[in-house]
Amino acid sequence: MQNDITFYQRFKSDILVGLKVITIRDRSESHFKVGDKLRVGTFETDEYFCTIKIISVTPITLEQLTEEHAKQENMTLSDLKKVISDIYPNENHFFVIHFSLL
Ligand SMILES: CC(=O)Nc1cc[nH]c(=O)n1
């Protein structure tokens, strides 16, 4: 069966133990709806590793990211801003996708 969303392998362990409960994506991955159940795979190999349920999808800019978002990503705020800027160069409009592990 196909996966619905992928995460870099380096995030997998944090997701599986509940330390990472949000993901910040651009508009191309903002179509998920509250209650959707998504199969999750690794970006590198598309190997399935868990299923998540969408709690909320909220628009945000890079400047609006807070310490709370960083905590939900299990990172410092400066690391989070760098990670997002590295993944999405020249983009400022994002969506915070809050999820729970099923
Ligand atoms: C594959 C991929 O884009 N992964 C991302 C992007 C942003 N946040 C995140 O947690 N994972």
Automatic annotation (TrEMBL):
HAMAP family: ac4C_amidohydr. This is N(4)-acetylcytidine amidohydrolase. Belongs to the N(4)-acetylcytidine amidohydrolase family. The keyword Hydrolase applies. The active site is at 20 (proton acceptor), 23 (nucleophile), 73 (proton donor). It catalyses: N(4)-acetylcytidine + H2O = cytidine + acetate + H(+); N(4)-acetylcytosine + H2O = cytosine + acetate + H(+); N(4)-acetyl-2'-deoxycytidine + H2O = 2'-deoxycytidine + acetate + H(+). Signal peptide: none annotated. It is an enzyme of class 3 (hydrolase). Its EC number is 3.5.1.135. Residues 5-102 form the ASCH domain. Catalyzes the hydrolysis of N(4)-acetylcytidine (ac4C). Pfam families: ASCH. Keywords: Hydrolase. SMART domains: ASCH. One of its GO terms (molecular function) is hydrolase activity, acting on carbon-nitrogen (but not peptide) bonds, in linear amidines. InterPro entries: AC4CH, ASCH_domain, PUA-like_sf. Gene3D superfamilies: Hypothetical protein. GO terms for cellular component: cytosol.
